[in-house]
Amino acid sequence: MTKQKFVKIYCLSLTIPFLLLVFPLFSIANRETPFIIGLPFSVFWVIFWIIVTFIIVLFLYKIDPDKDEKEVH
Q1: Which domain of life, per UniProt (predicted)?
Q2: Residue 68 has what pLDDT?
Q3: How far is residue 52's CA from residue 45's CA, in Å, rounded to a whole number?
Q4: DSSP 3-state of 52
Q5: C-alpha angle 4-8-9 in degrees, rounded to nearest 5
Q6: Residue 29 CA to chain centroid, in angstroms?
Q7: CA dist 52 to 29, 31, 59, Å?
Q8: In whole angstroms, how far apart are CA 3 and each of 10, 14, 61?
Q9: Which residues does 25 contact at the CB level (< 8 Å), separation at least 6?
Q10: In terms of DSSP H, where are the helices of 1-73?
Q11: Contact of 40 with 33, CB cutoff 8 Å
């Protein structure tokens, strides 16, 4: 995978969860009911997208083309 392609995937895959957590797209989930795992839906929404973002970052780390290169000074 080329570095340019990786950067495009990186930017796109982390922009989507960010947009779902900021206003005005957060208004989709900004409500008290239903309760999921004992949490109001809006709190569950934020926690869910934080976990999804973490999983995306783990995946991106695994496919990073530069992670195996050793830094030379």
Answers
A1: Bacteria
A2: 75
A3: 11
A4: helix
A5: 115
A6: 17
A7: 16, 20, 11
A8: 10, 16, 13
A9: 19
A10: 3-21, 41-63
A11: yes
Q: Which two tokens stand for residue 22?
A: 């900021």
pTM, rounded to two decimals: 0.75
Q: How far apart are the C-alpha atoms of 11 and 7, rounded to whole Å? A: 6
Along the 73 residues of the chain, how does pLDDT read in single tens digits? 788 898 899 999 999 888 888 877 777 777 777 888 888 888 888 899 999 999 999 999 998 878 777 666 6
Instruction: Please give the backbone phi and psi of residue 9, each rounded to the nearest 5 degrees, phi first.
Output: -60, -45
Please, what is the end-to-end C-alpha distance for the chain in angstroms?
Answer: 25
DSSP 21-37: HSTTGGGGT--S-SEET
